[in-house]
Amino acid sequence: MKRWMAPISFKNPCERILPSSMISFGGSSQDAIIASSTSGIVPSRLVEALERPERFLIVHPLSPPHLLPITELCTAPETSDATLERMKSFLHSIGQNPVHLKKEIPSFALSRILSVLISECFGLIQDGVLAPDDVDPLLTQAFGLRWAVIGPLAAMDLDAAGGIGEYLRKYGGIYRPLRAAEAANPF
Question: Per residue, what are the HEC states of 145-158?
Answer without folding.
Answer: HHHHHCCHHHHHHH
